[in-house]
Amino acid sequence: MSHALVPEGCGTDKDCKLDRVCEANRCVWPKRPQWAQRSADASGHAKPPIWSSAMSEAESTGPPAQGMFRFDPRHRGRSTFLLPKQKPELVWTVETPAPVTSSPTLSVDGLVLVGSHSGKILALSGDGKPAWTFIAADLVWSTPAIAADGTVYVGSDDDNLYALEGKTGKLLWKYRVGTCQQTVGIGPEATRCDVDAGPTIGPDGALYTGGDGVYAINSNGTLRWHFATGGHVSSTPALAADGTVYAGSQDNSIYAIASDGKRQWEFRARDDVESSPAIEEDGTIYIGSDDNRLYALSPQGQMLWAFTTGDDVRASPAIGHDGTVYIGSYDGLLYAIRRDGTLLWAFRTGDRIQSSALVDASGAILVGSQDDRLYAIEPDGKLRWSVELGGDVDSSPILTGDGTIYVGSDDGKLYALRAK
Ligand SMILES: [Ca+2]
Ligand SMILES: [Ca+2]
Ligand SMILES: [Ca+2]
Which ligand is nearest to the CA of 371? Predict the structure, then answer.
């Protein structure tokens, strides 16, 4: 079969992988990120004065990372591609062979990377053939992140953050997070230092992840800083344009940490925070909590609003191009919430939603549910199609320029789906 990913040559932006655009028949990174082109005045929120200039500068220090959880450091879950209109068909599956809650990531070399509870990190070609496998000493929940140079960073419940060579999977370094007496297995001490988060890759190549607190690790595997929290940090920190790191913790708090590792503020939710934050262009932070709420916080840490769902919110928010926020809840509903905190619509699935939604270029949504289905939802909240997989779909799906969808499931498989 033909390769699922177009390596070179393009007719339109849709032929290009990731967020690249087609210029003179070549896929290139856009000169300015799309978010920087919109006026913050239109949002109605106060704009931090350094916002766009700081990010333009940061972006100019190097090409953006190839991929990570929620696609970029601001975690908006926003794709530049279009979801297929027709229900896609199964192209291939790969047995990992244990639950896949990790979300797949694409490299510009055309590899699909995913972690598994088998401890394996698998790299597959676009046609599902194994390129390499790396085996950690415990479960992998973490979504692999791929730096601009192709290096793959991924965490494991064995308490290590691993750096792997992108083409071969060869271990470059590992960083042991925390000083937990027991690193693998179950129990509070065995899980306290688990590296479940992303990691997130910053513009200078630094890695932001969680364990017994929040970690910033240099791209050579040395510690930049550790920010202690009162509970495990399982979710992936997000990085704002001014270098502020936002992270949630099982100590019920959401933290803002300056680029030097110093605490800026702490916002107290009423229960664990396992959702990862998403950051809007104007700096607004959206994050869910086990207290059933989705919070909108200002860059200064004030609550703008809270939207209450019927159960824990462990998924991470997606932010549409028009500012609508999409998030699933353990109550089984996928919510579309306007930027003022009012409900636009809710879509009911048959079980809890842990999967974080993807929003496509037209505002259509893709999300998994523990009812074993992957749903495509129209911008107005109506069902477009759904596909039944073999188990819970807690993994967050990704979409490529040719409409291929990759997602993992508790049945131990990574799925590739594509419409005819
Ligand atoms: Ca552990
Ligand atoms: Ca709850
Ligand atoms: Ca199920």
Answer: 3
Task: Report CA(261)–ligand 3 centroid distance (Å).
Answer: 40
CB 105 within 8 A of CB 143: yes
- Which ligand approaches the C-alpha of residue 252 most closely? 2
CA of 191 to the centre of ligand 1 (A): 4
For residue 316, how far is its CA from the centre of ligand 3 (angstroms)? 20
How many angstroms does the Cα of residue 139 sit away from the middle of ligand 1?
A: 9
Residue 121 CA to ligand 1 center (angstroms) comes to 17
Per-residue pLDDT tens over the stretch 222-270: 999 999 999 999 999 999 999 999 999 999 999 999 999 999 999 999 9
What parts of the chain have a pLDDT lower than 50? 1-8, 31-60
pLDDT tens-place string over residues 323-364? 999 999 999 999 999 999 999 999 999 999 999 999 999 999
- Cα of 291 to ligand 2 centre, how many Å? 4
Give the ligand with the smallest distance to the CA of 330: 2
> Ligand 3 centroid vs 370 CA: distance in angstroms?
4
